């Protein structure tokens, strides 16, 4: 840990600039969607969504940092990242940081455990991509899991993914294991306009609006929505505002939505890939962690609208206690939880949720509820945890020895699953499954200690309250063997079911709040990272407000932690807004063509006519099997002009409109 005093000479020489920076003030969370981009004397800081080395400067230490303590409630990826930023950018001594973790292991929802005999289990997985600016910033400095120093987790990740492109050859299945055509989005022109309308809508217009209230029935039956809902776990009754944010956040990945070429995956499960190396680094720095500590409430002193945490109420193995918090100490709390109160099952046992409408005794929801009871600035947790049937789905982890199921898996995978390379390339969805079941096989081994002859599959379903197609029960009432039976039915393996069951171990996780973060919401339902008036408290995780980022990603958790650290320590450094792909004309044109079933979109012919053969020709999207040299050909323009002419002639009787169109057509033809 560098001593701020050692740089006093250099600081003295920069003192005029340091004073000017403090006087200017820095907006820690700039919002690119609320500014007109320009260069001028009124824009001394980098653009809000600038990514890259220029935004990664080391800030100066906060005055008195060595005397401050930080208490971090929850050791999920948000909490772990908060500790990282406190150390790296806040210059806080690691020994001043204490984790209060309710479980006996760190990681929160990023779990991964088990063995080949009893079966492995991961409650969920993380689909990732390259523009996670905050997440990759952390892991560019964390030592690699298996490579020697000085290599980082990011270095290791890049070696795996750069050498092994992710893609899917069987994204959709039907008719008991037959690959369904998934090359097109299947949207009509009117349904495409529904998407455009959502992109153009202001966020303020979408409070408490659901997906099914915004989109037509036909849209909800399209390939596009099947890709979307199964990849991101959206339900029809979820927030259309969150769907809009997803569209903006990942617009640059639209043309990889159907075949999963937009994704990158770790070598192992999420716990071993990310939690273990980051926690190891933090412990080596001197961070302390108190396990089996359930935090129930925060005591606060309130005066003149300012709220300062003075105590942390918690329950430990040795009883209840209150940790005293100094007025200059910091508290970071993860509120809400996607995986709290998980019910488990196995081969012969179905999971059983406790019969209650209220969240259980874990710290995530109870802490948030108790905070919300103190003030409206802490949001409305009941909007997210108050409807368990609409926020629940179930996952099943299968530990598989060789069997006909593995033979079928090889048929559906881009590489032999035993090769160590990409297997299914993401989830494979059974489109005619009553449960809307999907399964995936990531790179194997999925666990470092996994035997060579074992494959780990992950299965989940969205419509779990419906009877299965073969097992005539809702999914939560099924044992692991019954879930495997339903899967085998949809893969055409019923003649070999006994052999599959004998070689497969199933472990079930039924999660009552797994999509709670997607529930319809309005302004004020989620608190700010630093709620109004709070002097030493920051909230983190999936249930706090950010300008433009989405929920249900590793990136959003890390972003909230970084905002909290920078805000409470008054660090003059911006947390960059989301990747600006939505403003990139290349991405917009490519996404437009993708949504139009990879056919020329209205106006594309005119763009080709203008830009074909120029320096900017490369921004135009290529069609299927189209060569670069074909971009400048006039065929698309001619076709679209004829279509426009036919549309006007069939729908307008005014003669001068026809004449105007004829003049335009003739003038354009004269250019060729």
From TrEMBL:
<dbReference type="InterPro" id="IPR036188">
    <property type="entry name" value="FAD/NAD-bd_sf"/>
</dbReference>
<dbReference type="InterPro" id="IPR010354">
    <property type="entry name" value="Oleate_hydratase"/>
</dbReference>
<protein>
    <submittedName>
        <fullName>Myosin-cross-reactive antigen</fullName>
    </submittedName>
</protein>
<dbReference type="GO" id="GO:0071949">
    <property type="term" value="F:FAD binding"/>
</dbReference>
<dbReference type="Pfam" id="PF06100">
    <property type="entry name" value="MCRA"/>
</dbReference>
<dbReference type="GO" id="GO:0050151">
    <property type="term" value="F:oleate hydratase activity"/>
</dbReference>
<dbReference type="GO" id="GO:0006631">
    <property type="term" value="P:fatty acid metabolic process"/>
</dbReference>
């Amino acid at each position: 840990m560098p001593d701020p005093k050692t740089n006093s000479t250099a600081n003295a020489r920069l003192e005029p600039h340091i004073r000017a920076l403090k006087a200017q003030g820095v907006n820690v969370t700039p919002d690119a969607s609320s500014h007109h981009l320009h260069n001028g004397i009124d824009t001394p800081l980098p653009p809000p969504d600038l990514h890259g080395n220029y935004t990664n400067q080391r800030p100066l230490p906060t005055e008195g940092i060595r005397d401050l303590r930080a208490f971090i409630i929850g050791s999920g990826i948000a909490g772990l990242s908060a500790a990282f930023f406190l150390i790296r950018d806040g210059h806080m001594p690691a020994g001043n940081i204490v984790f209060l973790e309710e479980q006996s292991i760190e990681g929160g929802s990023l779990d991964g455990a088990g063995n080949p005999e009893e079966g492995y289990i991961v409650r969920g997985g993380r689909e990732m991509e390259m523009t996670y600016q905050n997440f990759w910033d952390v892991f560019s400095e964390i030592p690699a899991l298996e490579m020697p120093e000085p290599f980082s987790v990011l270095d290791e990740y890049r070696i795996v993914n750069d050498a092994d492109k992710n893609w899917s050859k069987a994204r959709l299945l039907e008719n008991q294991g037959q690959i369904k055509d998934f090359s097109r989005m299947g949207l009509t022109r009117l349904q495409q306009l529904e998407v455009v309308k959502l992109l153009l809508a202001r966020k303020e217009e979408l409070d408490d609006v659901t997906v099914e209230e915004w989109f037509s029935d036909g849209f909800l039956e399209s390939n596009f929505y099947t890709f979307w809902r199964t990849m991101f776990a959206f339900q029809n009754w979820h927030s259309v505002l969150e769907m809009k944010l997803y569209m903006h956040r990942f617009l640059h990945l639209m043309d990889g939505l159907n075949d999963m070429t937009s994704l990158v995956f770790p070598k192992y499960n999420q716990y071993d890939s990310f939690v273990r190396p980051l926690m190891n680094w933090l412990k080596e720095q001197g961070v302390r962690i108190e396990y089996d500590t359930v935090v129930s409430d925060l005591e606060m002193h309130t005066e003149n609208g300012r709220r300062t945490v003075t105590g942390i109420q918690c329950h430990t193995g040795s009883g209840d206690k209150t940790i005293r918090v100094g007025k200059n100490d910091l508290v970071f709390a993860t509120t809400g939880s996607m995986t709290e109160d998980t019910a488990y099952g196995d081969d012969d046992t179905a999971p059983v949720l406790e019969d209650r409408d209220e969240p259980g005794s874990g710290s995530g929801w109870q802490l948030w509820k108790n905070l919300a009871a103190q003030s409206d600035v802490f949001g409305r947790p009941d909007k997210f945890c108050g409807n368990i049937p609409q926020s629940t789905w179930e996952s099943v982890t299968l530990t598989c020895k060789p069997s006909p199921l593995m033979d079928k898996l090889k048929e559906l995978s881009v590489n032999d699953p035993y090769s160590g390379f990409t297997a299914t390339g993401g989830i494979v969805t059974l489109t005619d499954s009553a449960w809307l079941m999907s399964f995936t096989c990531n790179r194997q081994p999925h666990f470092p200690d996994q035997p060579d002859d074992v494959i780990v599959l992950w299965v989940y379903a969205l419509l779990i309250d419906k009877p299965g197609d073969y097992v005539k029960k809702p999914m939560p009432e099924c044992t692991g063997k019954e879930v495997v039976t339903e899967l085998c039915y949809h893969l055409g393996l019923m003649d070999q079911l006994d052999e599959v069951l004998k070689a497969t171990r199933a472990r079930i996780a039924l999660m009552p709040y797994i999509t709670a973060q997607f529930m319809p919401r309005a302004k004020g339902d989620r608190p700010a990272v630093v709620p109004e008036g709070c002097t030493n408290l920051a909230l983190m995780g999936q249930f706090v407000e950010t300008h433009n980022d989405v929920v249900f990603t590793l990136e959003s958790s890390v972003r909230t932690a970084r905002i909290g650290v920078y805000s409470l320590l008054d660090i003059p450094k911006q947390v960059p807004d989301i990747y600006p792909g939505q403003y990139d004309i290349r991405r917009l044109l490519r996404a437009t063509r993708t949504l139009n079933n990879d056919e020329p979109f209205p106006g594309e012919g005119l763009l080709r006519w203008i830009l074909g053969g120029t320096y900017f020709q490369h921004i135009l999207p290529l069609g299927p099997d189209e060569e670069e040299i074909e971009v400048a050909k006039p065929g698309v323009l001619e076709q679209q002009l004829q279509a426009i002419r036919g549309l006007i002639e069939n729908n307008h009787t005014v003669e001068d409109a026809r004449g105007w169109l004829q003049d335009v057509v003739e003038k354009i033809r004269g250019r060729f």
